[in-house]
Amino acid sequence: MARKGLGARTAQPALGMGRQGSMGSIDKYIFRTTLGAFVMVLVSLTGVIWITQALRGIDLMTNQGQTILVFLGVTGLAIPVLALIIAPLALMIAVAYTLNKLATDSEVIVMNAAGLPPWGLFRPFLYASITVSLAVAALAFYIAPDGLRRLKTWNTEITADVMANILQPGRFTQLEPNLTIRIRERLPGGLLSGIFVDDRRDPKERLSIVADRGTVLKNDKGTFLILESGNLQRFEIGKRDPALVAFTRYAFDMSKFVGQTQAVTYNLRERYLTELLAPPADDPIYQQVPQRLDAELHDRLMSPIYPLVFVLLTFAFLGSPRTTRQSRSFSMVSAILAVLILRIGGYALSVLSTSAAWAVPLQYALLLATSGVCLWIILRCIAIEPPAKLLESVRRLSARLSRQPATA
Question: How far apart are CA 211 and CA 246, in angstroms?
Fold first, then answer.
């Protein structure tokens, strides 16, 4: 008996916090396992969704002649927004995985038998959720809006470029009533091949230019189409024969047709938190629909709260000690449904808050009430189990299906 009591006493410091408040070995183990699973899930889900979104912009390389680096840069700017949406769900999956792993290995039962209180087991998950919440706050307050702003600016510059959008391979493009240009194809690095130019803008002469290849040059003097290895035919009125000139390099002025970069106007999702807190007085959105700006502000402020609430919900359903004979399927399904209902409810209130100011406090009340109930369940070590009648009905249904003869 004395040996057993000594074992319990010596194991106690390793289970929880140290005397100076540092993490014990169990806390570090659970913390590392949870964050490792979170990173794996976040990278996997974000990568899959990013690939599906990036495929929509594949024409940036094929039709507009941009390089692979430009393509990856433009599409990669949307990754912080995807991570912001996926991170709370990825953390919920990581916590469920860690708890299921601990329960499968009977580690939760051993910790509970050694005297570890429910709060002691929940503590490393709280540390992990705080870490993720800080990362989500950085994404929501600055990184994600900054990526969207850069993406919009980049797209505006590309859209304003006539060489990237109007001139399509294999088509005769009429830039003006008397100016037609055709390119055969676009090559990597912005190189154009098979260029034909028919210029009739001068009523006294007509120019026909054919070049093997060309590139676009932009400098302080304008935008020029640099043609290489070609010939120029000049037809002048009053002369019978055209003048034929072979050239190695020829600069064709395109400055008139390249639109100037317009002033970029950022929408609410592309604004920093400071711009939402103190919008300019002349902001058209703030003047016309200030509730939309307030709804976006509160949505940003609540983004770091969702990881904490998701962890509380998941732990409330899966954190109580169970033997290996007790099924965890009901608790797992219930946790997933609770998280989905909470997120859908929060999103519905967020949409509603754009037109109804009373929906904003309801969002905070929903998160606060959910957190309070989950904390009460965790601290009182209440195991959420399905009703006995429901379990009995499931057993009867399973037995009835198992007794049915197999049909050929």
Answer: 10
